[in-house]
Specification:
single chain; mainly alpha; two-stranded antiparallel ribbon; 14 helices
Length: about 290
């Protein structure tokens, strides 16, 4: 009886998480992505499949968003066109669907999903906080968004997965993550960890904190659109995401710079919360992430 109650709790928690991240119709879309027959870019044995299917994507996603918002042009695009305040879960669900389709779906489905995103990017134009024009389909800006995601997802997996990637697998992950990115418009995406880190470093002179970035970070970390009862668990996941950032990134966002705090307190919170998410998601059908 106790085991049955625990399983019901696990399934309820997993379904609630899946609905938040992927939408109320997540099960139907998961079947479309996972069960449609056809050629795929990747297999379950590939590092990109393993990373993107793991619960470490939860804190990794928080870290990626925080890192991306440090580029004033990327932040301006998010603030002006994404609707993250009015519909934050919708934005998350669209991102989740994109990652799932381009990682686990058929090549045809992946390309169609990328084509849809490219059509949206083509219409997104504006000026950043310093009155500089930007466009969402600018390959240079697309590169920043891509490397911020890949670096964050990889770091999260290496920190919180039960079995981290080997050095060779990590290089392959970076190369495989670049396949859909190249179709999206990223020119010559990094192909290994060394080139990924070098590319992130090359963007650092362009990164700075804006009022919009501070507001978005506060919304993401302090005032998440969640019921009071769900915030504690979310904050634990967010703490894990913050711990993944380099000290310079935390400093730019007015977050604790100390590695001792990040690794000694925030990191364990991230590890524990990721484990809880992993347990909950194991209670629902495949494709839940």
């Amino acid at each position: 009886m106790l085991r049955s109650a625990v399983r019901r709790l696990q399934r309820t928690a997993g379904e609630s998480l899946r609905a938040r991240v992927a939408g109320e119709d997540a099960a139907d879309r998961a079947r479309l992505i996972w069960d449609t027959a056809g050629e795929r870019w990747f297999t379950p044995q590939d590092p990109v499949w393993r990373v993107h299917a793991d619960a470490a994507m939860f804190p990794g996603g928080v870290a990626a968003l925080l890192l991306q918002m440090l580029h004033p042009m990327a932040m301006a695009g998010v603030a002006g066109h994404s609707g993250y305040r009015g519909d934050p879960w919708g934005r998350l669900q669209r991102t989740s669907t994109y990652l799932a389709a381009t990682t686990f779906g058929t090549t045809q489905h992946a390309l169609a999903t990328i084509g849809h995103v490219r059509s949206i990017h083509a219409r997104v134009r504006g000026k950043d906080a310093f009155d500089r024009p930007y466009r969402a389909d600018d390959p240079h800006l697309l590169m920043w968004v891509h490397i911020a995601e890949v670096a964050s997802f990889l770091r999260a997996y290496q920190a919180y997965a039960s079995t981290p990637l080997t050095a060779e697998e990590a290089d392959l992950y970076v190369r495989q993550a670049g396949v859909p990115a190249a179709h999206l418009g990223v020119l010559d995406p990094p192909t290994d960890v060394a080139s990924l880190e070098a590319t992130v470093a090359a963007y650092r002179p362009e990164l700075e904190t804006t009022t919009a970035a501070r507001d978005a970070a506060r919304f993401l970390l302090v005032e998440p659109p969640l019921p009071a009862g769900a915030r504690v668990g979310y904050w634990a996941i967010a703490a894990g995401g913050v711990s993944l950032l380099e000290p310079w990134a935390r400093e730019l966002l007015d977050l604790p710079r100390s590695d001792l705090l990040a690794r000694g307190l925030l990191g364990p919170l991230g590890r524990a919360s990721t484990g809880t998410v992993r347990w909950a998601m194991a209670g629902v059908d495949r494709g839940a992430a």
